[in-house]
Amino acid sequence: MYPIKRNRRLRSNEAIRSLVRETIISPTDFLVPLFVVEGKGVKEEIASMPNYYRYSLDLLEKEVKELWNLGLRSVLLFVKVPDNLKDNAGKEAINPKGLMQRAIKTVKNACPDMLVMTDVAMDPYSMYGHDGIVENGMILNDESVDILTEMSLSHANAGADFVAPSDMMDGRILSIREAFEDEGFLNTGIMSYSAKYASAFYGPFRDALDSAPVDLKNIPKDKKTYQMDYANRFEAIRETEMDIDEGADIVMIKPGLCYLDIVRDIKEEVDVPVAVYQVSGEYAMLKAAAEKGWLNHDAVMMEQITAMKRAGADIIASYFAKDVVKLINK
Ligand code: PBG
């Protein structure tokens, strides 16, 4: 008798669907990116990221407590650096009293058990908007790694639980890991942006931090000499395995949605936790379409987040974290 199997039986109502559901989203899946600015009482909406803000330290404290009360347990910090503190040497990046260093302490004071991760790259501090030192139209590798290592130590010193190098210089994970060992930061973790692609989806983020590569003669207009070519798949595995060998505790793929094949490849290849970053452009696209009434915001958001976890991501960095958690807590 046909059909022997009626697959629709397991789909016939929400109770049975939820019973057999393979992928469940929980607040502890998320890393919440946070943008920090100087000042007091500042909560500025980012033009290309509706309902996402830059916070001054006093309001950051409030926001972090709210995240904690919603069940979110990890944040990823980014700072917007005033133009007069930008240079080509990352000097402000290692200032013990710099905005990032104060932001780390602010979060830890407000919520001691909140996991604090920090972005490690030179671009917010760079007068040229690059992740490393620029010389003769090129981004120097080893000199940049030295600064990124100093920067990581400075974040660890301020109390960061994890550093997250997003720069894509070669050899930076080993250098940071060795420095941590030498300086006694034995328990400070490294979440490496291992497979970070040169992507046009980072546009709104660069608006948020005013960190886009500048349009000047002899300054590369893009980051293609260090971030990966989005046409490549096997290279992502190579990059990731190297970062693990160099001492990364968690590896990350970025952007998210267009790169879920890479998430799956890497998840199958490695045995450390795998993170994915649903980046600013992905956030902006959905917000814009929802604003126009063309897409159902919450439904599409949940579909995308679930797809990331289904693809193999153990951790999801997302600007939607708060929206998702509010929705699932309902
Ligand atoms: C900086 C950095 C970027 C992002 C995270 N860290 C931008 C870039 O590499 O140009 C992008 C995040 C996003 O778009 O949400 N190294």
In CATH, what is the homologous superfamily? Aldolase class I
The major pleated sheet works out as: 8 strands, parallel, barrel
Total number of strands: 12
> How many H/I helices?
11
Q: Order of SSEs, N→C? A: HEEEHEHEEEHEHEHHEHEHHEH
The name of the CATH architecture is Alpha-Beta Barrel
Largest sheet: spatial strand order: 1-4-5-8-9-10-11-12
**N-to-C terminal Cα separation, in Å?**
44 Å
Structure classification: alpha/beta
How many separate domains make up the residues?
1
Supply Rg: 20 Å
CATH class: Alpha Beta
Mean pLDDT: 97
CATH topology-level name? TIM Barrel
Residue share in helix: 25-40%
Beta-strand content: 15-25%
Ligand inventory: ligand PBG
Task: Show unreliable segments.
Answer: none
| Assembly of the depicted chains | single chain
If you had to describe this structure to a student in words, what would you say it looks like?
This protein is an alpha/beta fold. The protein has a single domain (23-328), classed as Aldolase class I (TIM Barrel). The chain is 38% helix and 18% strand. The strands form 2 sheets. It has an 8-stranded parallel barrel with strand order 1-4-5-8-9-10-11-12, surrounded by 8 helices. A two-stranded antiparallel ribbon has the order 6-7. Helix 4 (142-158) packs across helix 5 (172-182). The chain is globular, with a radius of gyration of 20 Å. It starts with 13 loop residues before the first helix and ends with a helix. Ligand PBG is lined by residues 119, 121, 123, 131, 166-167, 202, 205-206, 223, 279-280.
